[in-house]
Amino acid sequence: MSNVELRIEQTLQWLKSTNQEGFDSCIAQLSLAVKETAEDQNTPVSLNHISSILEYAPPKKNVYKLRLYRGLLLIVRNKAVLLSDGTVYSKVVKSFQNFIVLDNPTGEEVENEEKEEDEDWNKKVIEVYWQTMANFPRKHQLLQKLKELKEPEEMSDTEDLDELNKLFKTTKVFPRSPVIHFLFRQFFTEDPDVTNENLLQLLKIEDNHVLAQLYKLYESINFEDITHDSKMLLHLLYDVITHESFGKWVNTVQTSTEVRREWLELSSTILQTSDDWNNYQLVALLDWVVYIFCIVGGSLTKDNLNDSEIEYQILPALSILADLSKFNATVQFLTNMQESFLPVLIKVFKLIHENVKQLTIKSKIEEVVGYPHAKSYIITILSYMCYQSFPIQEQIRELGGLTLVLSNCVIDNNNPFIKEQAILCTKYLLDKNPSNQKIVAELEAKKVIDDDVLQEVGYKVDVIDGNVTINKKNDQQQKKKELEN
């Protein structure tokens, strides 16, 4: 028997005894064992000794026993890196669950000062549990070991995740770093197929407390100073929101509007941290975002325009679509859905344009209006969609989008740079499209739109013998040069 194993047995014997004498000596010896396993992970500790530690249930109102039990758990934590036996991992989860639900066995009231000390050591024990779980081999390696030990019919695909989900539901203590490391190691791998399978099983859980905690961890990210832990979390979140099954989970009946809003907002934010998306990721992400936008945007009316639940889903959805429109895969996806997507997009555009006040330089500083940047997002999406696409140019005009774009060639502090964006979109809508050019020419002749706008997009309107025509300025300049020569 190794020295560490001997100290484990002595500590467990003290913990099970009603005699409280010898604590200082016991914890001093245990500290040596913890140090030895930390410095040398190959220090012999049998699985039986580890199981004995995990099977012990310490009283949560006894600080002395909590401190000793924490020391024993530190030994398990130090050895966890080399513990490829999946049953040990399951025992840690079970032990963790049991520790969380333990009550004061005596039922005695304790003084506030004692209660605070108890709670402090309870939290320290829980933190070591998380550290231990974070140190285990990755999830797929553990599952392989479990499958070798059990008959296939004895183990469901989500058996371990169901237990993990219960753990996330019952515990209230989530030390940031070890929880991030645990989740990252259990669900993210360098093999995309393995990561995909891990997340597929996770996303099958409808009442998902693991994902709820992932969102809370996201809220703790300081985007002005992204740490190593935050980068790990972001990489995991990238894979979650772009997983083909995420849309099914986020759009289930059980998922509340608030949860959908939260994940839309999360996605909108973290998309700003990376431009490295493959086509499969883009399509999976667009699938659920466009679905939500079409449902919520389709329900938008003048009467519910001020409904914050609707606004806080539409805004991040538009932000995501505008940000991803620079990718060809996004334009192709939206083009394929043009019959269902474009009418909703133009409808939302029209409702916001006609019912949300524009902010100008003369507006009061403290004045706030709804749907900030929404029109800018929409015009950006339209610009990418209609660029060198005659069918999209036609549909935008038929839906009333052309006149809406022209109407936004003005300064609006609620939508910074919208004038420049609208002018560029107008240029794309007019490119090689006689019908759109004709409408713009007629509007300019009636002074409905500013001639300066056409000048900026490179067109000039001429009225010859009562007929209104529109021509590219560079064409006229080229003809002039040819005549001069």
Describe the protein's topology:
Elements lengths: L2 H14 L6 H17 L7 H9 L7 H18 L5 H16 L10 H24 L3 H11 L9 H12 L5 H12 L4 H11 L6 H11 L8 H14 L4 H5 L6 H14 L8 H20 L9 H17 L3 H9 L1 H18 L18 H13 L3 H9 L2 H7 L10 H13 L3 H12 L5 H6 L2 E6 L2 E6 H12 L1
Antiparallel strand pairs: 1-2
Strand runs, count: 2
Mean pLDDT: 86
Order of secondary-structure elements: HHHHHHHHHHHHHHHHHHHHHHHHEEH
**What are the low-pLDDT stretches, counting only 5+ consecutive residues below 50?**
103-110, 149-155, 363-368, 478-485
- Percent helix, as a range, is 55-70%
Main sheet overview: 2 strands, antiparallel
Describe the global form. elongated
Cα distance spanning the termini? 103 Å
Task: Output the number of helix runs.
Answer: 25
Rg, alpha carbons: 31 Å
Name the strands of the widest sheet in spatial order.
1-2
Strand-pairing-aware structural class:
mainly alpha
Beta content comes to under 5%
Outline the structure in words.
The chain is an all-alpha fold and 485 residues long. Among the domains are: 1-137; 433-485, no CATH class. 67% of the residues lie in helices and 2% in strands. It has helices spanning 3-16, 23-39, 47-55, 63-80, 86-101, 112-135, 139-149, 159-170, 176-187, 192-202, 209-219, 228-241, 246-250, 257-270, 279-298, 308-324, 328-336, 338-355, 374-386, 390-398, 401-407, 418-430, 434-445, 451-456, 473-484; strands spanning 459-464, 467-472. The protein has a two-stranded antiparallel sheet with strand order 1-2. Strand 1 and strand 2 (467-472) form a beta hairpin. Helix 1 (3-16) packs antiparallel against helix 2 (23-39), helix 2 runs parallel beside helix 4 (63-80) and helix 6 packs parallel to helix 9. It is elongated and about 100 Å long.
